[in-house]
Amino acid sequence: MKKSLQEIKDLSKAGKSFHLMLNVEDYTFPELLDLAKISGMIGWKYTFKNAAQLSVLELQELLTHADDAALTFDFC
Known about the structure:
It is a single chain. By secondary structure, the protein is α/β, with parallel strands linked by helices. Helix content is 41%, strand content 17%. The protein has helices at residues 5-11, 29-42, 56-65; strands at 19-23, 45-49, 71-73. Helix 2 runs parallel beside helix 3 (56-65). The longest helix is centred in the middle third of the chain and has 14 residues, at 29-42. The protein starts with a helix and ends with a strand. The mean pLDDT is 88.
């Protein structure tokens, strides 16, 4: 079930580290970028499923803004 961006951010209040698997087709690129940007602040890791839907430039931008090793891409 798709969670809204605000619901995902609200989970960070639990103070726990998460590894979330998100389908890129369920989110806009700005939403994915926002998640990448906050990855370092909240210490979460993301796996973006169906990442083949993203362009090379979008992938590079996500990696540029994410914390080290915070993102994994599933191209299947």
